[in-house]
Write a structure and sequence with these properties.
11 helices, single chain, 41% helix, Rossmann fold, eight-stranded mixed beta sheet, 23% strand, alpha/beta
């Protein structure tokens, strides 16, 4: 990928943000484990992980494909891919990591994968029809795609992002659609739906500091604590004096070709 092909979040990506993401990804890790059960990977299958991030669950998925399977994992953020590659090497796992975007899979031949797995990355896709068309193309006949992502803007997180000077640009980096539009696009791409729902989940943090670090890491630095004024910081601490619980609408799908 060239620099111009990178999404804005990946352009902001740093080794420090990637390391912070590793520390703060307990929620993502818990949900990813549930998604792994849903995809029901079998030994010998060939799979694609879209938005693998730092690769913790990618390694878990790779083990489920043994013996005889293969896993390709893509992410546009080079800093996160560096950690993912090291994670796989430390566990003696052979995973092909590629810097790529989910809506541009032209590097993969048609009918290559038995299934596609994506945990908390689809909301970063800016061209959803292209994403659905490309994932459908690279799946084998009878293949499946399972994903979970943020379904609607998380209002408490949006309040934090609104404190950033580039708020309007930041809000263009994610895609949120109605159930009707999603289903229309899924059908247009050729998929059939086994599961498509909107679970209400909760983000839980021990304190406001953990919430701010998580927001910074998961937004790829779109939110930055160092840009907050003293007044803004005091306002946030007053709003969240103890532990923090933030409900939000997720989106989960199991689609078949």
């Amino acid at each position: 990928m060239t620099e111009t092909d990178l999404p804005m979040g990946s352009k902001r990506g740093t080794a420090e943000l990637a390391s912070s993401y590793v520390r703060m990804r307990a929620f993502q890790e818990n949900r990813a484990r549930k998604l792994l059960e849903l995809v029901a990977a079998r030994p010998g299958e060939i799979a694609l992980d879209i938005g693998c991030g730092t690769g913790e669950q990618t390694c878990d998925l790779a083990r489920r494909l043994l013996p005889g399977g293969a896993l390709v994992a893509i992410d546009p953020d080079p800093s996160r891919l560096d950690i993912a590659r090291q994670n796989a090497a430390d566990q003696w796992l052979e995973i092909e990591f590629i810097q790529a975007r989910g809506e541009d899979l032209r590097g993969f031949e048609t009918d290559r994968f038995d299934f596609i797995y994506s945990s908390y990355s689809v909301h970063w896709i800016t061209d959803m029809p292209a994403f659905l068309a490309e994932t459908y193309r690279v799946l084998k006949s009878g293949g499946r795609m399972v994903f979970e992502c943020v379904g609607e803007p998380v209002h408490k997180i949006v309040e934090l992002l609104a404190m950033m000077p580039s708020f309007d640009e930041i809000m263009q980096e994610n895609t949120f659609q109605s159930d009707e539009i999603w289903r229309e696009q899924i059908s247009a791409a050729g998929f059939s739906i086994e599961l498509f729902d909107w679970p209400v989940l909760e983000l839980e943090f021990a304190d406001v500091g953990a919430m701010l670090e998580w927001t910074e890491a998961t937004s790829h630095g779109a939110f930055r604590r160092d840009l907050l004024s003293g007044e803004q910081m005091a306002e946030i601490r007053q709003q969240y004096p103890a532990d923090v619980v933030i409900p939000f609408q997720a989106l989960r799908g199991l689609l078949w070709k």
